Amino acid sequence: MIKIAPNGLQAAPDGLWIIDQVDLKIYKVDWETGDVLFEAQTDTEHSSGITIGGGYVWIASTFELQIAKVDMETGKTIVASWREGMEGASETGAHGLEWRNGKIYIASPPSQFVHVVDTETWTEEHAFRTPGLRNHGLAWQDDKLWVADTSAGTVNLLGTADGRVYDVIRVEAPDEVHGMTMHDGVLWYCDAHNCAIGRLIV
User: Fold this and answer.
1) Rounded CA gap, 38 and 199, in Å?
2) Confidence band of 84 (pLDDT split at 50, 70, 90)
3) Which of 68, 163, 180, 189 has the smallest CB count inside 10 Å?
4) How far is the CA of 125 from the CAs of 10, 120, 169, in angstroms?
5) How far apart are CA 148 and CA 180, in angstroms?
6) How far is CA 96 from each of CA 13, 147, 149, rounded to the nearest angstrom?
7) What's the CA gap between 169 and 82, in Å, rounded?
8) 19 within 8 A of 49, measured Cβ to Cβ
């Protein structure tokens, strides 16, 4: 497998999508071999989260305080929006992303909330608080959302209506869970510090 600095993961039937926070490329790799099936350069900045929906790749361009809607074939940004210039925005911006039914779920460490945003209008429809101080990766399990917290070393299964905690996984130090995704019932994660990609027991 290639040596990268993964900071976000997204499962797809034909491969694992990865955003690299250093070279700012998106990669799709084979689930079994880790071979690179596709790669493209993005114009995001210190990217931190990735998801797929509506025929596009969505990337948290963290230092730009933006969510980039990216062409799947070229990696070029079509439109970028969300928190730039908004009250409460800070230099760390958004981190983990997930997509469902035309909405993008955005983990924001500055607010300690997951924000639910309509991608057609870029209006926030809902938000719920997350445990800990630094939420990061997101991953769907049915109608609930796993949310990683790098400060507490935990991954929490939350209800999206009110943020209620249904389960908690403790991550052994010094590993940190940054990006996350669920594939065939397995929770995959990446650690941007040691560049590891692994799996958590759920």
Assistant:
1) 22
2) very low
3) 163
4) 23, 12, 28
5) 8
6) 20, 8, 11
7) 30
8) yes
Average pLDDT of the residues in 76-94? 64
DSSP class of residue 64 equals G
The residue among 132, 129, 130, 158 whose CA lies nearest residue 145 is 158
Question: Which among 96, 97, 105, 83 has a CA at the least distance from the CA of 136?
Answer: 96
CB atoms within 10 A of CB 117: 22
3-state secondary structure of 162: coil
Domains of the chain: 6-200 (2.130.10.10)
CB 147 within 8 A of CB 166: no
The pLDDT of residue 199 is above 50: yes
The structure tokens listed for 91 are 């230099």
* Residue 17 near residue 32, CB atoms below 8 Å: no
Q: What length is written for the chain? A: 202
Structure tokens, 123: 């209006």
Q: 38, exposed or middle or buried, with CB in 10 Å at 0-12, 13-18, 19+? A: middle
**Can you tell me the distance from the alpha carbon of 171 to that of 153, in angstroms, rounded to the nearest whole number?**
5
pTM: predicted TM-score of the whole model, two decimal places: 0.89
